[in-house]
Specification:
131 residues; Arc Repressor Mutant, subunit A; two-stranded antiparallel sheet; 5 helices
Length: 131
């Protein structure tokens, strides 16, 4: 048994604007130098990636991605200084939050094992009970 967690930042309407997918997209933009290339690497459409960045920037009220026009490919993007700092801050937060779940999960897992062992020793407790 293992634990899986999903962390999201949501706005006042409960709409997600930041999570692991957006983090991967930001990392991809930083690595690829292109929103389109980052989207392709994540196997999402360019329009979805564009919307993800737009939602993030709208909520934060700050530019996270700087779009470059011109050059031979007529495309390109990089993270703003704020974008890099935000990406690193969120990445550190989500890693720390997930790591802090390991100890309570280990305790839960041990207690569940104990409970299962206790109940398997006396199966009559679970059988022959009518409601």
């Amino acid at each position: 048994m293992e634990i899986k967690t999903k962390l999201y930042l949501v706005d006042s309407d409960g709409e997600k604007f930041m999570g692991i997918g957006v983090l991967w997209l930001l990392k991809g933009i930083e690595e690829q130098g292109s929103l389109r290339a980052a989207a392709m690497k994540l196997q999402i459409s360019y329009s979805k990636a564009y919307k993800m960045v737009g939602n993030l920037e709208k909520y934060l009220g700050m530019a996270v991605v700087e779009r470059h026009k011109g050059g031979s490919s007529h495309e390109g993007a990089s993270l703003t200084e704020f974008g890099v700092r935000f990406m690193n801050l969120y990445d550190e937060f989500q890693q720390t939050a997930k790591a802090k779940l390991l100890e309570p999960f280990a305790q839960f897992s041990a207690q569940l094992d104990q409970l299962l062992n206790e109940c398997h020793k006396e199966p009559k407790l679970w059988k022959n009970q009518s409601m």
